[in-house]
Structures are given as C-alpha cells and as structure tokens.
Design goal:
82 residues; 5 helices
C-alpha cells in the first residue's frame, strides 16, 4: 500500500478542510510523517466538525489499520460519518 498517496487522496476528497491544515498534512507527508499526517487530519475533522462520507471513513479506516493506529483515531472520527 502506498500510504502517502492514500492519505493525499483522502485529503483531496474532503470538502471544507481548512487550507492551513491541508498544507500541514501535505508537508507531513512530504517528510514521510504519515502517522502524524493522518492524526492531524482526524484531529482537524473532529475540531472543525467536518462530516465525511462512508467511503472516506472506510478509506481512513483502511489506511489507519494498515498503519496500526486505528485504535488511536477511531473514536475521533466515528461520529463524523454523514
């Protein structure tokens, strides 16, 4: 799995993600900080109360399970599904 491309794809699909957070996430990815990028994305979704579709949720879940951080982020985003 290409984690960087997966997370970039997720970021591109999310409507309403603040520009500054989008830039930060992409910078983390450039430096191979994939876990930090995904955690930042999920924290932003939660803080900004950005609703996500079921397919986006499943993509986040899939990549976070692959990275073994699903348990850490699950509770942050479970209530954000439209």
């Amino acid at each position: 799995m290409n984690v960087e491309m997966k997370i970039k794809s997720i970021v591109e699909q999310i409507v309403g993600l603040p520009k500054g957070d989008r830039i930060s996430i992409l910078e983390f990815l450039e430096h191979n900080e994939w876990g930090v990028a995904l955690e930042h994305l999920c924290a932003t979704l939660c803080e900004e109360n950005i609703q996500i579709s079921e397919p986006i949720f499943e993509q986040i879940k899939g990549v976070s399970i692959y990275m073994e951080i699903w348990e850490d982020i699950r509770d942050q985003i479970i209530d954000l599904i439209k």
